[in-house]
UniProtKB/TrEMBL annotation:
<feature type="binding site">
    <location>
        <position position="782"/>
    </location>
    <ligand>
        <name>Mg(2+)</name>
    </ligand>
</feature>
<feature type="binding site">
    <location>
        <position position="780"/>
    </location>
    <ligand>
        <name>substrate</name>
    </ligand>
</feature>
<feature type="domain" description="Pyruvate phosphate dikinase AMP/ATP-binding">
    <location>
        <begin position="21"/>
        <end position="56"/>
    </location>
</feature>
<protein>
    <recommendedName>
        <fullName>Pyruvate, phosphate dikinase</fullName>
        <ecNumber>2.7.9.1</ecNumber>
    </recommendedName>
</protein>
<dbReference type="GO" id="GO:0046872">
    <property type="term" value="F:metal ion binding"/>
</dbReference>
<dbReference type="InterPro" id="IPR008279">
    <property type="entry name" value="PEP-util_enz_mobile_dom"/>
</dbReference>
<keyword id="KW-0418">Kinase</keyword>
<keyword id="KW-0067">ATP-binding</keyword>
<feature type="binding site">
    <location>
        <position position="782"/>
    </location>
    <ligand>
        <name>substrate</name>
    </ligand>
</feature>
<dbReference type="InterPro" id="IPR000121">
    <property type="entry name" value="PEP_util_C"/>
</dbReference>
<dbReference type="InterPro" id="IPR018274">
    <property type="entry name" value="PEP_util_AS"/>
</dbReference>
<feature type="domain" description="Pyruvate phosphate dikinase AMP/ATP-binding">
    <location>
        <begin position="317"/>
        <end position="368"/>
    </location>
</feature>
<dbReference type="InterPro" id="IPR015813">
    <property type="entry name" value="Pyrv/PenolPyrv_kinase-like_dom"/>
</dbReference>
<feature type="binding site">
    <location>
        <position position="781"/>
    </location>
    <ligand>
        <name>substrate</name>
    </ligand>
</feature>
<feature type="binding site">
    <location>
        <position position="630"/>
    </location>
    <ligand>
        <name>substrate</name>
    </ligand>
</feature>
<dbReference type="GO" id="GO:0005524">
    <property type="term" value="F:ATP binding"/>
</dbReference>
<keyword id="KW-0547">Nucleotide-binding</keyword>
Length: 887
């Protein structure tokens, strides 16, 4: 016989925290708290297996479930000293859903189940408080009709507002017992009118209605969407918790609240939470009344004059503090708690590992490791690498003047400056045109996602810390100020009115998502502080990881940023970017348009000093670290003007006929440039380009070593090699120039020549290519394009569809396709190292900054990953976690 039901109560439980697969997170932790001897109202948990059986049986309760629940309920009643359906001492219940992972898409909790026209009288008699009994009954009817019967809760809110207005009351708590009875009569009438059925009076019918509703909610649209977004399998099912009620709405010695054992936004090790006197369920988070702080310190900090729990109910408070400490020490992590106080007696209703910001996560992990609660390795393991993004943003310089023009909630950390735009379309257009913008909206909706992506930051007039704008911005790691209520947006005149100032599109503002301030103009900023807890955690990560982390950078600014983020070298320096700058592109064009080798060499001679000085600066910044420099890679027409107007202009400036120029551009036109005349193919057609670049590199290395005293580790990389002979050809030129430069300087420079593995042929022939190549760097962007035969620039239209239709799970340009592209990487690594033992291997595609791909790189045994500067800390942490998993 399958065990469908687990009982908990009176210091004993049939399940434990280990049973969350069966009991769901909430049920497993209720059992655990009970077994720890904490005050938990008795109850029972119906397993996730029962949920699955319910669906297997075509939405009918599995055999034996009903009998098991009723038997368990008998025990719960005994523990509570009450009976379900008992006319004098009715057992009232809460019915709560609870999946393995916390899931907001599921059924809302139903409280006070078991109340009807008779038991409400018993409750009034027993409690001696009629108002309390009728308040509980109306809450039950409202919740049950909404959650189980599917009647919109707004219907009831309207009735209540209407009655309150009629009776001249402001707060729900002002209503008397008799007045609640009138409200209830209207509720019941509405239910009959709207649904054609009466509100169920039989407690058993109520109970099974609620259990069925929890099971059904597993397959509602909200829950399905949530599961898809969070990769939660449908097969998990949900558990149902049926628990004896305790009452926080039992007068002024009763209360209900929520708390965190540490501050979830800063991580500070101090109890943090809110409660409401004479309230029930989720009144605290529903914002009906302003909640009070649990601790006195919290009250003082928030500047509230409403008393803290610490002061109003010192005994219950003291016990609560003891319990929070006990729970944290037991679970070894910050807990998120729900509790109720009934006439001075504390009851625990929930505990779970609390959600937190990245900043709080780091502080909590570091402090827990320091206090010996957890190991350093565990601290490293606990931080989600992608979440570090939140910490890597600039902040406003504290020394800067702050021309404040408004303020709102600090909804997503970091500061941002940009021009005001009022719509997402404008945001996208402005950013395409190379401008930086702040998206200013009354509030945002899902249609604004593209605008939010494009913007530097988001400012909304309405909405709280959990508004759409706030939640989405935090997810994107973008600064956001929400609910800046004093600002006015006048869409007709397209102005933002802020403290007398009238601003419009194009005016620059700065938002500080960490303080909630809105500032006029561009305010000086500081780069993110990477020391403190963050620095220590990263040190621990660095001590754990095996792979090194490099960066993809060619500009001094990027190289410096990457160094400050802890990059240990450059894994990809794309030299072509150096030719796009003003003043250089025209020389580059001269070179491309020259019709003889001599002409090309003359232009290259002019490019040489420019390229050399770029390298000197880069080498000085990287100070002795390894640098992989890739020779010119893109097809040459990318450097040429497009469109008649631009062609005419360029022709004028370099002194050729526009027609001649247009003809040459035509000649260079390719149908499929990605697969065209690019990469090492350029160096084979025009070796003088590679020769100039090699000379610039070696002369710069010699020069930079003079100032730094530490020559960089040069790695010269030949792109897009498919054939061993291609590499042989180019390598011979590199070696020859290197020899010349070294002879001229009378100095030896150590260097490696290697190749990018970015074509399937190269991967398969890696064993032979490794005879010439001294290192491999996996260019997984091109390798993904060429392996799939999908152009990355054209893929988004159909990859989206692929994901929707379940053809692929993840975008292979974001997370490496381990079965296909990854298999090629594996083959090339093994064969390369078979030819050249210990050969240096790295990855330099976008995947180098993606945690899942980094895990794969660890499993293949690559020496390093290389990613964009801002992803370097993420890669350091992900590499550490990968090493722990592999080890
Ligand atoms: P959620 O998953 O949304 O947090 P819960 O099942 O925890 O939903 O229920 C929400 C709230 O209902 C709790 O925080 C608590 O205030 C109240 N509640 C749940 N069970 C009981 C109970 N047995 N007695 C009193 N209040 C309860
Ligand atoms: Mg809830
Ligand atoms: Mg809860």
């Amino acid at each position: 016989m399958t065990k469908w039901v687990y009982v908990f109560g009176d210091g004993r439980a049939e399940g434990s925290a280990r049973d969350s697969h069966l009991l769901g997170g909430k049920g497993a932790n209720l059992a655990e708290m009970c077994a720890l001897g904490l005050p938990v109202p008795p109850g029972l948990t119906i397993t996730t297996e029962a949920c699955n059986a319910y669906y297997d049986g075509g939405k009918s309760f599995p055999e034996g479930l009903e009998a098991d629940v009723m038997a368990a309920l008998q025990k719960v009643g005994e523990m509570a000293g009450r009976g379900f359906g008992d006319p004098d001492r009715p057992l009232l219940l809460s019915v709560r859903s609870g999946a393995r992972a916390s899931m907001p898409g599921m059924m809302d909790t139903v409280l006070n189940l078991g109340l009807n026209d008779d038991s409400v009288l018993a409750m009034a008699r027993e409690s001696g408080d009629e108002r309390f009994a009728w308040d509980s009954y109306r809450r039950f009817i409202q919740m049950y009709a909404d959650v189980v019967m599917g009647l919109d809760h707004e219907v009831f809110e309207e009735i209540l507002e209407d009655e309150k207005a009629r009776l001249g009351h402001e707060l729900d708590t002002d209503l008397s017992a008799a007045e609640w009875q009138e409200v209830i009569a209207r509720y019941k009438q509405t239910i009959s009118d709207e649904l054609g059925q009466a509100f169920p009076q039989d407690p058993r019918e109520q109970l099974w209605g609620a259990i069925g509703a929890v099971f059904s909610s597993w397959m509602n649209a909200r829950a399905i969407t949530y599961r898809q977004l969070h990769d939660i399998p449908t097969s998990w099912g949900t558990a149902v918790n049926v628990q004896a009620m305790v009452f926080g709405n039992f007068g002024n010695t009763s209360a209900t609240g929520v708390a965190f054992t540490r501050n979830p936004s800063t991580g500070e090790n101090r109890l943090y939470g809110e409660f409401l006197i004479n309230a029930q369920g989720e009144d605290v988070v529903a914002g009906i009344r302003t909640p009070q702080s649990i601790t006195e310190a919290g009250r003082i900090e928030s500047g509230s004059d409403r008393p803290s729990l610490e002061k109003t109910m010192p005994e219950a408070y003291a016990e609560f503090v003891r319990i929070t400490e006990r729970l944290e020490a037991h679970y070894l992590d910050m807990q998120d708690l729900e509790f109720t106080i009934e006439r001075g007696k504390l009851w625990m209703l929930q505990t779970r590992t609390g959600k937190r910001t990245a900043k709080a996560a780091i502080r909590i992990a570091v402090e827990m490791a320091d206090s010996g609660m957890i190991s350093r390795e565990e601290a490293v393991r606990r931080i989600e690498p992608a979440s570090l993004d939140q910490l890597l943003h600039p902040t406003i310089d504290p020394a800067a003047e702050r021309p404040v023009i408004g303020s709102g909630l600090p909804a997503s950390p970091g500061a941002a400056t940009g021009e005001i735009v009022f719509t997402s379309e404008e945001a996208v257009d402005a950013v395409r045109a190379g401008r930086k913008v702040i998206l200013v909206r009354v509030e945002t909706s899902p249609e604004d996602i593209h605008g939010m992506h494009a913007a530097e930051g988001i400012l909304t007039v309405r909405g709280g810390m959990t508004s759409h704008a706030a939640v989405v911005a935090r997810g994107m790691g973008k600064p956001c100020v929400s609910g800046a209520g004093a600002l006015r947006i006048d869409m007709r005149n397209r102005t933002l009115l802020a403290m007398g100032a009238k601003l419009g599109p194009g005016d620059v503002i700065t938002i500080d998502g960490s303080s909630g301030q809105v500032l006029r103009g561009a305010v000086p900023m500081l780069q993110p502080e990477l020391s403190g807890d963050f620095g220590r955690l990263m040190e621990w990560a660095d001590a754990t990881r095996r792979m090194t982390v490099r960066t993809n950078a060619e500009t001094p600014a990027d190289a410096r940023a990457a160094r400050s983020f802890g990059a240990e070298g450059i894994g990809l320096c794309r030299t072509e970017h150096m030719f796009f700058e003003d003043g250089r592109i025209s020389t580059m064009r001269e070179m491309i348009l020259a019709d003889s080798e001599a002409g090309r060499r003359a232009a290259l001679d002019k490019l040489l000093p420019m390229q050399r000085s770029d390298f000197i600066e880069l080498f000085e910044i990287m100070h002795g670290l390894p640098i992989t420099i890739r020779l010119l890679d893109p097809p040459l027409h990318e450097f040429l003007p497009k469109g008649a107007e631009e062609i005419a202009e360029v022709a004028r400036s370099i002194g050729v006929e526009a027609e001649a120029l247009a003809a040459r551009i035509d000649e260079l036109h390719e149908f499929n440039p990605m697969l065209g005349h690019r990469g090492c193919r350029l160096a084979i057609s025009w070796p003088e380009i590679a020769e100039m670049q090699t000379r610039a590199i070696f002369e710069a290395a010699i020069e930079a070593a003079k100032t730094t005293g530490a020559p960089v580790e040069l790695e010269i990389m030949v792109p897009l090699v498919g054939l061993r002979t291609e590499l042989d050809f180019v390598k011979a030129r590199i070696d020859a120039v290197a020899r010349d430069v070294m002879a001229e300087a009378g100095q030896e420079i150590a260097y490696l020549v290697g190749t990018m593995i970015e074509l399937p042929r190269a991967a398969i022939q890696a064993g032979s290519i490794a005879e010439a190549a001294e290192f491999f760097s996996f260019g997984t962007n091109d390798l993904t394009q060429t392996t799939f035969g999908i152009s990355r620039d054209d893929a988004q239209s159909f990859l989206q569809t692929y994901r929707q239709k379940g053809i692929i799970e993840t975008d292979p340009f974001v997370t490496i396709d381990t079965e296909g592209v990854g298999q090629l990487v594996r083959i090339a690594s093994e064969n390369g190292r078979a030819t050249r033992p210990g050969m240096k291997l790295g990855i330099c595609g976008e995947h180098g900054g993606d945690p899942a791909s980094i895990r794969f790189c660890e499993s293949v045994g690559l020496d390093y990953v290389s990613c964009s500067p801002f992803r370097v800390p993420i890669a350091r942490l992900a590499a550490a976690q990968a090493a722990v998993k592999e080890g």
